[in-house]
Inverse folding.
């Protein structure tokens, strides 16, 4: 992938850059591996907004990704590298020897014609191969990591990220997450070798409000310019401070820099070092 910059013919274009999609080899998705998405606009089953600033957006089909990759010891050939509107990274269409196809998260450097294998034994450490973290050499980057063996990859799936394999102790392997958190994972958890594809995604400058609306992101309004009935920061004549000791969410709970993780959460014991502030 590369970043394309246009001539600054308008003020909006001046601050805008776009993906050039040079790494995409197939435009339309595999129809058998897509399903419709029901858009909620951030509302729950009662019609109340629970996630703010969601709504609209371009129509899209969901690509069914195989996060588990349980076809062990069966080589699969990469048929195409595709764009997925539902995630920041690229996805790879792979074809097994029995002609079945599936989508996987594409690793950085994965190309059409490459072979990828998933196994419960040690494999060659090449991008896209998947094996238990106990067999992955120290110092390698991994992605699509399971948190519970057999459940499928749940973490390290965004564009350009990777977790660093640091150490092995007892029944656990120590990984340094993209956030800086150092965490223990069960040795039987599967992980894919390499960084996630599309690392330049973070360098895109969206520039125009309309592009954010195409992504389904609605405008964000500051609490202090709302009415008192809509936000704890609201009210007052003219431009007033929030009038509170600490900032709050629209629901009245403490906001900005407050730790929200449950102190009694069982998985806290697996965190060796907290993420960067």
């Amino acid at each position: 992938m590369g970043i394309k910059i246009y001539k600054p013919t308008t003020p909006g274009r001046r601050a805008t850059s776009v993906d050039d999609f040079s790494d995409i080899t197939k435009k339309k998705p595999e129809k058998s591996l897509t399903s419709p998405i029901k858009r909620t606009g951030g509302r729950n089953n009662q019609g109340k907004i629970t996630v703010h600033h969601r709504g609209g957006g371009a129509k899209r089909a969901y690509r069914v990704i195989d996060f588990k990759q349980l076809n062990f010891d069966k080589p699969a050939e990469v048929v195409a590298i595709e764009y997925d509107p539902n995630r920041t990274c690229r996805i790879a269409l792979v074809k097994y020897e029995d002609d079945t196809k599936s989508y996987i998260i594409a690793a950085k450097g994965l190309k059409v014609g490459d072979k990828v294998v998933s196994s419960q034994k040690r494999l060659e450490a090449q991008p896209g191969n998947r094996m238990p973290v106990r067999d992955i050499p120290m110092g390698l980057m991994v992605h699509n990591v399971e948190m519970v063996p057999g459940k499928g990859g749940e973490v390290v799936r965004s564009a350009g990220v990777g977790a660093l394999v640091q150490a092995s102790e007892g029944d656990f392997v120590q990984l340094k997450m993209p956030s800086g958190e150092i965490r223990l994972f069960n040795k039987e958890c599967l992980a894919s070798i390499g960084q996630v594809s599309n690392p330049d995604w973070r360098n895109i400058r969206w520039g125009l409000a309309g592009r954010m609306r195409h992504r389904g992101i609605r405008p964000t309004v500051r609490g202090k310019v709302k009415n008192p009935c809509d936000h704890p920061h609201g009210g007052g004549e003219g431009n007033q401070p929030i009038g509170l000791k600490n900032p709050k969410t629209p629901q009245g709970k403490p906001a900005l820099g407050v730790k929200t993780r449950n102190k009694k959460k069982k998985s806290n014991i697996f965190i060796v070092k907290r993420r960067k502030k």
In short: The mean pLDDT is 94. The chain has two helices and 17 strands. The radius of gyration is 22 Å. The longest strand covers residues 76-82.
